[in-house]
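User: We ran a pulldown and think these components assemble together. Before we commit to crystallization trials, I'd like a predicted model of the whole complex to look at. Sequences follow.
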Amino acid sequence: MKPLKSLKIVSIHIFIYAGALLTVAPFLWMVLTSLKGLGEILAYPPTFLPETFHFGNYVEAFRTASFGRYYLNTFIVAVSCTLGQLMTCSMAAFAFARLRFWGRDALFLLFLGTMMIPGQVTMIPTFIILYWLGWIDTYWALVVPGLASAFGTFLLRQFFLTIPRELEDAAYIDGCSRFGVLWRIILPLSRPALATLAIFIFMYFFNDFLWPLIVVNSEEMRTVQLGLAVFRDRYLTQWDLLMAGSVTATLPILLVFFVAQKYFIKGITLSGLKD
Amino acid sequence: MQSGIPPTKMDTSKQRNRRQKIRFYRREGMSAIFFLSPTMLVFSVFILFPVLFSFYLSFHSWNMFSSERTFVGLENYHHMITNPEFWQVLKNTAIYTFATVPLSIALALAVAFFLNKKIIGKKLLRTAYFTPVIVSAVAAAVIWRWIYDPSFGLLNYALGLIGIAPINWINDATAAMAALIIMGVWKSLGFNMVLYLAGLQGIPEHYYEAADIDGAGGWLKFWRITVPLLGPTTFFITVMSVITSFQVFDIVYVLTHGGPMGATKVLVFYLYEHAFKFFNMGYASAAAYVLFAIIFIFTLLQIRYGRSKVHYTV
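Assistant: Here's a predicted model for the assembly, 589 residues in total across the polymer chains.
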């Protein structure tokens, strides 16, 4: 019985580690390819480690496409949307969790209902509205539609409901305003939920592609993902530069993920298996 | 109230409290307007109005730049269902979805099941499987395009080592769809795995202990305990995955651009072309509403049947 059992344990380990290796292999291949010269990249059979390290690929990629500018745009958009959504979502969540007003529950249901609407349905009219406003190809078009979200409001409302009211009552007696209570008591107590939400919003806008593809025309307004896609269309076979560009477009999120992994996992289980 | 205060004094302070309370709650409605206004403003302009407007547009013919917007009734929808390209696109989307979703779910369950056992380096493994989820679809598709490259790609080289002839992953219709599906599974597996891990945590250990006493083997325990008790999780993952797969766009755009000859053109890609290349805003809106209807059916399934909670304790 015993050798059979240890054989089983070993085979489970082999299966699970082989799967994990296959899963991360594309990323390893991306990094390795980004450091090879084009001649070596197209060699057959392929080499595993680069013969010489071509860090110049990154310099070249940043020169042929203005990744620096794309980065700036992406950060402006992602940070604005993250801060903006944290603000609007926590305010709306506070109203739904703490205030009593006419039609609150109906409004909240309507709110949740909007989560069912796929973005592709609102995409076309939103584009038309932005066109009427003259905002196409500006930061406004990239930021303003992303300044509120039903998901974030829902997530924070659920969290606010778990905070005991006693602290707030004490603050109200001391003459604190409602906004003061939200700002000084509820938000500091909600740091884990806010961190989870912030990471989700930031990741969403950093990785978003379809919306920038639609509203951006000029090179100066491109985000990292859009820039990479255009770059790919233009330099079809320049795999050295394309891989350097891909590393550029994935690195920030990978770093955030490795540092704050638990918030990613928590966010998914929160959004997935809520009551 | 405190016992030391004389009754008359208590009454007045009580009344004062009441008056303050009423005034406080009356202002609650005003406060609600203040707290909700930023969100409501964004939602009305960019969600509520667009939903209605695109419904309206789906009965019109309009290129958005001309002032002429002609009412065409059901013409857009009629044109769509009589258009073979639309059916091809719908078929492509369905093939992608109903191949990716079961594959991803089965693999995610297997990985989660083993990860839930005593495994060395559990955290590291979870991180590895989850990485594709957080990386942008565009960058991932660029990497996979390189791996799929028919002449220099890593995949054809690896297949060659085990004696399989090179496959033209990009220019062959069937292979291109397969390439898309493989990448779709790779990208979504980690997400489903995390949901399954959470589900597995909810199964009490004593179920397995009882099965051990009855002499049940690992395989039997998996099929008779794990799979049934994960039913609600599986249902939820299935519905969510179907919904997101029907909306696939980024990886198609970068990996195959809908080609070869439209073999991987999916619904959102079709919609995107009609709206932002040909500016058939009416027709594209109608296509968006067809997508909405499909997704809505699956959402209703989730609302109707997804609520039933399994109680683990007797």
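Chain B has a mean pLDDT of 88. That may be worth checking against your pulldown data before setting up trials.

User: Thanks, that helps.
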